[in-house]
């Protein structure tokens, strides 16, 4: 029979603060509980408990592809038994990203077997580990190592190999949104051009999670950013916000085709790197502004239109046109330390106040329909975050 020893703890009310995503849920004010070890026969199992054992999970599940708010359902399931190389994780928070929506719609490059739990990103805390687990321990904060893990649930038993630890001295919402957008931005700024302080990067979709991470990481490295956004009613407010986090210039899509661009290039050099998350005409216009020998990276296609490359850009400017998918990068580096080194550098920026999560709207699991609908609306500047 399993033995659970419940230790008394002094707790205080926990909450996620504000829409700025800067509040701490489980950092300095977190419940500080003690792990205990129970010996059963020859098997040692570690526990982390402030209450009864977690045996069930409430999850957002889809059994067919389609409109997210129509096919996703809230279900409760019994958790599977803990195996030797697995860990029981209580989820704390999980964002709703475009890739999540595309998976539910059935349009993403990789699709989990159905029925599936939604969510590719999030942060949880380890409650219990199997007897042979070595890379995570009870009490650790963990995020998914790969896509498709299914993070929209209150708890889960995950394989040790599917998890990577993150420090608990950053905010929950920074940790929850760390594994996809900041990693995408970091790798694109690091791996394709040798960018130095004073160089320039141009990007569309600058209001996206990736776009905001690009602005902040580039600013920390002394790199100029020209950030392109679509015209909208709150354009001035958006422009002010992007500049506040480090954008050098914020311009509308139409400005890419206007003489105003020449004035910008009198102040800063033409970009070595263009980052395309839109496709279509927007991508073509980014490409035109690259310096000779520069690179355009496509990491998304919001416009659902092909990228057209002018012949002159290839012949006379020798530009390079590449693609980037952070999921593939993680798989290629599954067995080395590159992911952990990158996460450590990103967390250093977070601690220094140089990298923050985008504005967020926190939503309880029961209000998931509203969150899914809002995640699909145009011009929504706030990321939807499910809090467990």
Automatic annotation (TrEMBL):
Residue stretches making up the Enoyl reductase (ER) domain: 66-386
Single biological process term from Gene Ontology: fatty acid biosynthetic process
Domain of life of the native organism: Eukaryota
Enzyme class, spelled out: oxidoreductase
E.C. number: 1.3.1.104
Membrane-crossing residue ranges in chain numbering: none
Primary location: mitochondrion
Family under the similarity heading: Belongs to the zinc-containing alcohol dehydrogenase family. Quinone oxidoreductase subfamily.
Record SMART domains: PKS_ER
Cellular component, GO, one term: mitochondrion
UniProt cross-references to CDD domains, sorted A to Z: ETR
Gene3D superfamilies: Medium-chain alcohol dehydrogenases, catalytic domain, NAD(P)-binding Rossmann-like Domain
The encoding gene: mecr
MF annotations from Gene Ontology: enoyl-[acyl-carrier-protein] reductase (NADPH) activity
Name this polypeptide is given: Enoyl-[acyl-carrier-protein] reductase, mitochondrial
InterPro entries: ADH-like_C (IPR013149), ADH-like_N (IPR013154), ER (IPR020843), GroES-like_sf (IPR011032), Mito_Enoyl-ACP_Reductase (IPR051034), NAD(P)-bd_dom_sf (IPR036291)
Keyword S-adenosyl-L-methionine appears in the UniProt entry: no
Cell compartments where the protein resides: Mitochondrion
